[in-house]
Amino acid sequence: MALFEIVPNLSEGRNDATIDAAAAAAEACGARVLHRTSDPAHNRSVLTIAGSASEVLDASVALAGVAAERIDLRTHRGVHPRIGALDVLPFVPLRDASLADAAALARAAGERIWERLRIPAFLYGAAATNPARVLLAEVRKGEFEGLEARFADPAWRPDTGTIARHESAGAIAIGARNVLIAYNVELATGDLAVARAIARELRERGGGLRSLRALGLRLDPQRVQVSLNVTDYQAVPLYRLYELVAHLARRHGTGVTGSELIGCLPRRAVEDTARYYLGIPPLVDRH
């Protein structure tokens, strides 16, 4: 049986009851919630959910319903860019499935969510039908507050739906991609300009590392972070990223205080980092 993963990003990181409801809705569809994490500064939660094609498709629609019912973007505040209550919904092939299969599921999810909830969607990544929408950052430009003005442009009509945004739930970026690692490095400074400068130097769009996405974000008046999406962890291993951020931070007269992972990651990424820092051999799977 083909196995897929969805990694919904919800614009709620402070109300546990909402995330509990989202997780329960996914599991009621037969999918399995592997991991969940919430961040109050970002005001965002990320769930990692696995299942068959039908299970993750049903779960994605159920999650969109919970988000639309419980999250109102008109009053939402957080440091992370967002266009919707269910902001991002990527489909990831895990076993006996291809990226094309994941893209087909993404498109089907967009259609079903529109039919049932009247929330428009924009397709990105391998599901994109428009080259201008391949990068998630392009889709999210202007965020929720700028959706109506931006999508008045015929070139930016939703891929599914006939309105630019749902009144309170906004829009959803639905995509297909391979496994991605969400990794954040916190700096020993409250200067947001430093985090943004480091992000610009590192990310692919700024001429940095291919396949890397990066943002500089403020957590609170004393803390900033470089938020990283690693789309090819073998080409850009985590230990290299940590060392690069530390090196660039020193050039800006500061340092790093730690890092965090959001969601799940492949075991090889952990083994590669452990081998680099500790010199230990790869773990042996005894099962």
Label this structure with key terms:
single chain, 287 residues, alpha+beta, Formiminotransferase-cyclodeaminase, Chain B, domain 1, Alpha-Beta Plaits, 2 domains, 7-stranded mixed β-sheet, 4-stranded antiparallel β-sheet, 11 strands, 33% helix, 25% strand, globular
Structure report:
By secondary structure, the protein is an alpha+beta fold. It is 33% helix and 25% strand. Strand 3 and strand 4 form a beta hairpin. The two termini are 20 Å apart. The mean pLDDT is 94.
TL;DR of this structure?
The chain has 287 residues and is α+β, with helices and mostly antiparallel strands.
Net shape: globular
Helical stretch count? Answer: 8
CATH fold-level label of the largest domain: Formiminotransferase-cyclodeaminase, Chain B, domain 1
Number of strands: 11
Give the strand content. Answer: 25-35%
> How far do the termini sit from each other?
20 Å
Radius of gyration: 19 Å
CATH class of the largest domain: Alpha Beta
**CATH architecture classification of the largest domain:** 2-Layer Sandwich
- SS-based structural class? alpha+beta
Helix content: 25-40%
Sheet with the most strands? 7 strands, mixed
Give the H and E element order: EEHEEHEHEHHEEHEEHEH
What is the name of the CATH superfamily of the largest domain? Formiminotransferase, N-terminal subdomain
The figure for the number of domains is: 2
Q: What's the overall average pLDDT, rounded?
A: 94
- Given as residue ranges, the uncertain stretches (5+ residues, pLDDT < 50) are none
